[in-house]
Every structure is written in structure tokens, then in C-alpha cells.
Backbone:
């Protein structure tokens, strides 16, 4: 993928020559560009996979119908060996990029906004749910994926996952109580855009989470810990959700689950990007795990 292809798509589908093209560094499954044509900004998403954006378009339409701030599809099509989407653009940056500049009041208001948004999303009707769907199966999948990646890459000790798997019994009844409810599961330090201290949009929606929405809070918690930031925003989300004691325990379990997930990603290659790994990163993730594990053992 290069800028010549983006320029030609602009000419063929927007009938304008782009005045600016900037590739986004985030994202693992797509090539993503911010493109300006005739003074208007667009987001271009491109993939080599066939039918890559069928689910994306479906869920964007569903979310727009309940007033969730997600992009509109301007154009879709094929060019050369790529499928592409041209989407509307939101002003703002990923929350992880602006987090250090957010005031305490901003974090509280954003927490209220995202809890409200997730409550709206939970009203969506999910179709084609597997007859034997279970939340426990999702957790096992996450732990197995992390195990495979850690063994393959060799930077971390797989015993950390085995130790966590052995604790699932403490939350057996809770996991069994989880129903297949819709939620946005990939918003953490990324995909949640902030502009002037408030949510401006939610991006990169290719699927819908199904189950316990506490996982998006735990993913956010782990992302902030990994960035070395405070977790006040997460604290405000949990307060807004009015979580119970058992939910707080599940939230901690999920945070550790995402910790080993982050470990598994290190050194992996997605398209033309390799997830950075070095001694400092390994030490940081191990220390985060140890801190979380100590907290788990004392709950």
C-alpha cells in the first residue's frame, strides 16, 4: 500500500486530487490514512482481505441508528488488490495520546460519557449467537492465544498464564452468569477519540464484543498501566457503573488476562509492523503482572 494508490482512489471515488495524505501508525489489521480533499478530511481504511469490511459496515450502521458517535461510510470499493472504506473524519486524538493533559474533571465526564454509550450499545439485539455460547469459552480462548504467542516468541514465562488459569474457579459462578450482551470491546487507550476534553468519536469498529463489558474497562486499565499513567479514569468508570464486589474481582482478573495478552503480542508481526520488544518493555510488563498478582492474592 502506498500514497499513489490512495491518490487514485480519491480521483476515482471522490473526484478530487488529495492535498494531504498521512498514514496512521496505529492499527494492526488495516492500512489507515487521513486524507484531505478539497478542504475535507476523510479516513481511508484498506485491506488485502476479501469482504474485509462487511462486518464493519453492518455495525457502523447499527451503532449510528442508536446515535453512537461512529464514522459514516462515504464510499466503499475495490482498487488493485485492496478493499477500501472511505469514512467520515472526527477531530480529536486517541485518549492515550492526550491522557496526560486531561484534568480530573475531564476524566470524570469522559467516564460518564463512555458508560452511557456502552449502556446504549447493550440495547442492540445480537443475531446468530451460537447455541452453546459461554463466557468461560471466551476467557479460555484469550488465555490459550496468549499461551501460544508467549511460547512462540519466548520473551515471557508461560507459567504466568497457567497461574491465572488456575484461579478461574474463584469466579466460576460469576462467569457462568454472564449473558451475550453487546458492548464495544476495543476501546482503551486507543479508538476512543477525545477533542477538547470530551469524546468526539469511536473508531476502528470491525466487530462487536459479546459478554461482560467489564473487559473493556480492564483493557483500559492495563493500557494505562502500560503507558505509566494514573488509572483515575478507570476508577471513575467503575464508580459510574456501580460495580459489586464480585465484579471488582472479575475486573482485576480481566486486567491480569490482558497483561498476559500484552506480553503475548510483544515481538509479533501484523502486516508490515512488528510490536516492539526489548528488555525495558519485558521488565515493565513483568512488574505490572507482579503488582496485579499481589493485589489478586490479597482480595
Residues:
Amino acid at each position: 500500500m502506498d500514497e499513489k494508490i490512495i491518490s487514485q482512489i480519491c480521483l476515482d471515488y471522490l473526484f478530487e486530487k488529495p492535498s494531504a495524505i498521512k498514514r496512521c501508525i496505529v492499527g494492526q489489521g488495516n492500512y489507515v490514512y487521513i486524507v484531505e480533499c478539497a478542504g475535507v478530511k476523510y479516513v481511508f481504511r484498506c485491506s488485502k482481505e476479501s469482504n474485509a469490511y462487511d462486518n464493519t459496515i453492518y455495525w457502523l450502521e447499527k451503532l449510528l441508528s442508536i446515535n453512537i458517535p461512529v464514522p459514516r461510510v462515504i464510499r466503499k470499493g475495490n482498487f488493485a488488490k485492496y478493499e477500501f472504506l472511505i469514512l467520515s473524519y472526527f477531530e480529536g486524538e486517541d485518549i492515550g495520546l492526550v491522557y496526560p493533559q486531561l484534568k480530573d474533571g475531564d476524566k470524570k465526564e469522559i467516564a460518564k460519557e463512555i458508560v452511557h454509550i456502552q449502556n446504549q450499545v447493550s440495547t442492540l439485539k445480537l443475531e446468530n449467537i451460537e447455541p452453546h455460547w459461554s463466557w468461560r469459552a471466551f476467557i479460555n480462548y484469550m488465555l490459550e492465544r496468549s499461551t501460544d504467542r508467549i511460547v512462540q516468541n519466548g520473551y515471557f514465562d508461560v507459567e504466568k498464564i497457567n497461574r491465572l488459569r488456575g484461579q478461574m474457579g474463584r469466579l466460576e459462578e460469576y462467569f457462568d452468569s454472564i449473558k451475550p450482551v453487546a458492548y464495544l470491546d476495543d476501546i482503551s487507550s486507543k479508538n476512543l477519540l477525545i477533542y477538547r476534553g470530551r469524546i468526539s468519536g469511536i473508531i476502528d469498529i470491525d466487530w462487536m464484543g459479546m459478554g461482560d463489558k467489564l473487559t473493556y474497562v480492564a483493557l483500559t486499565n492495563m493500557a494505562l498501566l502500560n503507558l505509566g499513567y494514573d488509572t483515575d479514569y478507570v476508577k471513575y468508570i467503575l464508580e459510574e457503573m456501580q460495580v459489586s464486589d464480585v465484579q471488582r474481582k472479575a475486573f482485576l482478573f480481566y486486567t491480569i488476562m490482558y497483561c498476559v495478552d500484552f506480553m503475548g503480542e510483544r515481538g509479533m508481526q501484523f502486516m508490515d509492523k512488528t510490536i516492539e520488544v526489548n528488555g525495558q518493555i519485558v521488565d515493565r510488563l513483568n512488574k505490572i503482572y507482579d503488582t496485579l498478582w499481589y493485589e489478586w492474592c490479597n482480595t
